[in-house]
Amino acid sequence: MTSLTLEQVRLNHLRKQIYLDLKTVDSYRVAKEQIGLHSTDYWTPYLSAWSRIGDYDAEAVFNSLNSGQQLVRLNSFRGTVHVIHTDNLPVAVRATGPRLERWVRKHPFLKKHSDTEIEDMLGEVMNALEDQPLRMRDLKKALPHIAEGMRWLIFLLAARGLVVRATAPHARSTQTAYARLDKWSPGVKVPEIPEDEAIGMLLQLYVERFGPVSVNDFAWWLPWTKTKTRKTIEAVEGIVSFEFQGKTYYITKKELDFIPSIEIPDDPIICFLPYEDHFPKAFIERSWFIDEDCLQRLFPRSAAAHWPEGSKAKRAMPDTGGTGVNQSGEIRPSIWLNGRIVGRWEFGEMDKRYFVVYDIYEEVPRECQQMIEEMHRQLEEFVNERLLPISQKSSQAK
Questions:
Q1: CA 218/CA 392 separation, integer angstroms
Q2: Are 226 and 203 in contact (CB under 8 A)?
Q3: Which of 148, 197, 217, 223 has the largest CB neighbor count within 10 A?
Q4: CA nearest to 225, candidates 240, 212, 215, 237
């Protein structure tokens, strides 16, 4: 069996995250190849794409999300919001929707109604969305007798792939409208695939994009039980296991043979990943790219260690000392050197413009320091010149 080194695994991660790709890449390909871009913060998908491809037309992406063409927002992995390419939507819905529905059905509002009553209410919501997308407040106004449970009814419809998040007034607004998928993206069909089969399909995509991965990684990312994950991953053709530092990991056989041939790039590779980027969130076992002494800084338990965005505080990173670690929680924006985290950055705002503060947690070569400073400048330029113009309350959905 091929023996891999940590450096080889990191290079392979960079390759699959497009950092070694010399071909023409656009933001839509990033969304498609990465399965889904984390979007708890609505700026994150824009910044995840920027990190991988540099400057691009962010307004075009906003318009795509506001028109149902190529990209949609969906509650999927771990029930959180992701930007999903429409080509991946069927498998994402069928693999994540049933669990989301089981969770939603436990809500007290739904538990007090029969299945027939719930289906009738869902039908009313679908009828209300027949002509155009509607915001939550408009749906409640149109159907006041079920307004109390509207959020949970929308969750149910989303879990079934019938409703998606649609228009938003600007790129960072959470006040999205909801639309019927058959009206919003009429070319997208979500076939009736059994949950286990869909999870097998998704797991293959996951291993191809993020491998090597452990059973714990996928079970946490989806989420799914460890027992079912192990059975599923061992049944997928073309996936093999190997041992690394006493643990079992899975990867495609083709990739395992290919990794040793990846050439080390001549220049260092610097990456600024945003808050909750999808790549580090794809793992629960993160020793590939995070040293243990950095966990407290990247996963601080206390919100006091988060940058107080919007404040006029001094340009300095918040103190993360003594806050503890919440490794399954929110990962702060990070700076990477050759496939591992070496620092952290945050946004601050002053005089209606954003600036970036950062800390490097270890000594890096002067060349890398200069590259980090240049990328920091480019990030500020992208945010202020590309994101802010489409993130104002006066922006109009198209």
A1: 37
A2: no
A3: 217
A4: 215
